[in-house]
Input
Amino acid sequence: MSSIEEFQQQTRAWLEENCPASQRRPVVKDEQIWAGRDRVFATADAKLWFDRMRDKGWTAPTWPAEYGGGGLTSDEEKVLEKEMARLNCRPPLYDLGLWMLGPALLVHGNEAQKQEHLSKIVRGDIRWAQGYSEPAAGSDLASLKTRAEDMGDHFLVNGTKIWTTQADKADWIFALVRTDASGTKHQGISFILIDMRSAGVSTTPIELISGESEFCQTFFDDVKVPKENIVGGLNNGWAVAKELLKHERKLMATMESIVQREDESLVELATQYIGMDESGKLNDSTIRSRITDQLMTAEALEYLNERLFFQYRSKQVEPGLPLTVKYLGTNAMQQKDELLLQILGNHGLSWQEQSHTPREHNIVQNWAYNKAHTIAGGTSEIQLNIIAKRALGLPA
Amino acid sequence: MVLNEEQRLLQSTIRDFLNQRAPVSALRELRDNPTPQGFDTSLWRELVDLGVSSIVLSEAHGGFGFGWMGLGAVMEEIGRHLTATPIFSSVVIGAALIEAADDHHSTEVLPEVVAGTRTLAFACDEGLRFNPGATATLLNQGVLQGEKSFVLNGSGATDFLVLARTATDTKGIDGLSLILVPRDAVGVTVNAIHSVDGHNFARVKFDQVAVDHRQFVGAPDQAWDFVSGVLDRATLALAAEMLGGARELLERTLAYLNDREQFDVKIGSFQALQHRCAQLFCQLELAQSVVYKGLSAIDQGQQDVAKLASHAKVLAIDCYQKMSNEAVQMHGGMGITDEVDIGLFLKRSRVCNQILGDSSFHRERFAKLCGY
Output
């Protein structure tokens, strides 16, 4: 037996032994295990599951063991993902530090920063927020104006960040700030880590069209930040930010999982709400045809991700291919949301929670919330610009 | 879902060969000076010498173990060069049908097909479009009667593999048999047709053709059991060809956008065109992923690829059609001239749409397989 087969058998046995039954159902929003100083567990099982996974380092399976990670190879990680999917195991930990900051620190962080932050992320002790966009710096992110002034023994940060995901619940924030205004706009940006408990940090939630407030605006008013909190060197923040964007797939998984609700089966929902004729066809031919469009896109996206995995593994990555994932995936998601809403008919129109089933409410809220996906993390239009220039070589 | 070393080498060998020996201008030559066979026989001879005629067969029948991913790579090159050969009709469908039937034809017919001395054509479609369940051609008491409307590469085929109804009281895909009928059999009339893409097909009439039991390929009445699997695999190979054509079109269009100037700039700098190209690229890679998924599923021994085949065909149709329309549009006035090759791809895409099932057919089948 090869070592990977052995690993698979051990992993399967361990998960069957250690994943509580209640943690093998699709996770609902209120039961997600978010990192943080004040983290709470919805159930005792959730805590048990988290503790066991954390102790194995499998909250961050591929991070080096010296920082608390699982030390797995990418093939082993794939096995772990497959085995977890097989049992429907819930993710043991939710955190932007886990998905975004950690991988960037592994590349750009100095040893002290890795020692300080990585193991806390693995253990879920600190919840991270991201501070990139500003009210006047969206798609044109590099025009950001939040500044960190060198005061000799510390930086003084002033400005504001917007779309900071759940910053009101975060312990720390990683942010892009201007440390030099003299060069071009991409120069003079630094990547900095700020403790949200620092004096002068405040947050205001933003109410969304979905009725939720997942995002905040965060204000920095004469916030003192230690000089060692710059990652990747002074004025080198754009390179770190780009490294972070390489993890775009995980980043988008992040976007999804923040408000992850139960995944709806289109066919099942349509069968229930529209019904079938005696030959087993849905009674609405237009919706039936649109379901075909949607399933074909969604399944093709799975194959595209699988293909990318094999390309990474055999080190034959077609450089343009990863650039397509965000554009395609977010469009597909919205296409599905529109279809779900159409299937619900007038049951998709009520805004009061008590007047429709939780499932219907969920679909409506999701439909509205998911409009964020083609905007956040680089709009679809920016994605197309990037593809045109980097993958297709069209002129600027 | 990634080509291995041998498959990549195969692809570059075929690409170099076709670039040298049969660029798109070879199709123009065939279109303008058609041969009785409907293809360039010496080109086919050379391709056979390169081993393409046995590529999908087991090693016992002369295959080299390149697998379906390997075939997909070859088909992609054929799609890029618009090469007119019998590979699809005679090998990917014909030889594969005979190998799948696994009877005396494997020794009597297959070697000649692999050697390129015999070419097979699959005679299935009867009406306006592919619909094997509606087969009306009938073999009753040793006499074959019927007419086939769209026999791919039928003009030059030496033999037809005819899908016929042999159990008279059946409907749909039950009660079908596969019959090997030589072109020169008494009662066979071949009406060769030049198709819009410069290739050929034939309308073939079978009038009181005498058939004996040795002409049955595979078990009588139950042919669909093995024919459907062969056609699913062939559909994936066809989708690979179509995406090869689409990819070639994208590359040619990008080259044009990087060259053509208006308003004193390269027109490729216009965002309206950039976004459309980027969307086409995304659509192409999405479809390509389904094709690779299907081809590698066959290589991994997955028996039933019906859903993947229909999925791949639908996305390939949508992609190639959109790509060819956009390529014409983005080439501006040049796009509608015969001098530029783009129109040849445009025409090829529409022919491919009809082969082994159009979009309606495969969308319907996909929905049924998914249970809605």
Q: What stands out?
A: Chain B has a mean pLDDT of 96. The first helix of chain B runs from residue 5 to 21.
